Amino acid sequence: xxxxxARLYPVILMGMLAAATLWVERLVQPESTAAxxxxxxIADFRAxxxxxxxxxxxGQADTLLSASRGVHFADDGTTHLENPxxxxxxxxxxxxxxxxxxxxxxxxxxxxxLTESVRAYRGSRPGEPSTTLETSALRIRxxxxxxxxxxxxxxxxxxxxxEGTGMQFDNRSGQLTLDSRVRGSFVxxxxxxxxxxxxxxxxxxxQVAP
Length: 210
What we know:
CATH architecture: Sandwich
Shape: globular
Number of helices: 1
Structural class: mainly beta
Largest sheet: 6 strands, antiparallel, barrel
Helix content: under 10%
CATH class: Mainly Beta
Low-confidence stretches: 1-28, 30-34, 193-204
Strand content: over 45%
Strand order of the largest sheet: 3-4-7-8-6-5
Radius of gyration: 19 Å
Number of strands: 14
Order of helices and strands: EHEEEEEEEEEEEEE
């Protein structure tokens, strides 16, 4: 996920008007501030019902970000989203889709902070079941393809279920780590036919990897 300059905003999909095009250009440009007054946190551009895409080095769209509404603020370059949906598709890798009620993108387009009813789904592949994660807050680093949270999480992976507080996830390796207060039932893919072991973990961390 290494695109030059702003990684999240190279191309606008499906019918955004000229004003929205200008809005996207402003998202990726540093904002100058007036020298003769205090900087105010006021929205300068808005867009309704839009979809943005990231193009990889092969010229293919691999990451889509859509939202019912986006509001850009010139003073800090952030964009606030309503009902954001992030979807990533890569050859030979499971698809990833993340939704939430609210979200914020930083000036560079590298960090997406999602809040309220966050749900992440990672598709299955041979030898690895699908994974669903639910939490109240999630920070996504698009440039390095990682996600983390300090909030409680509920994880479903195939027939396994885990709960914990705090999480680190690496999409490239598929490894997920729960930081503390881990409990639930985990069934290794090779042992699913033999049944599950259920209980509360006394270890500070639990790792789930392919």
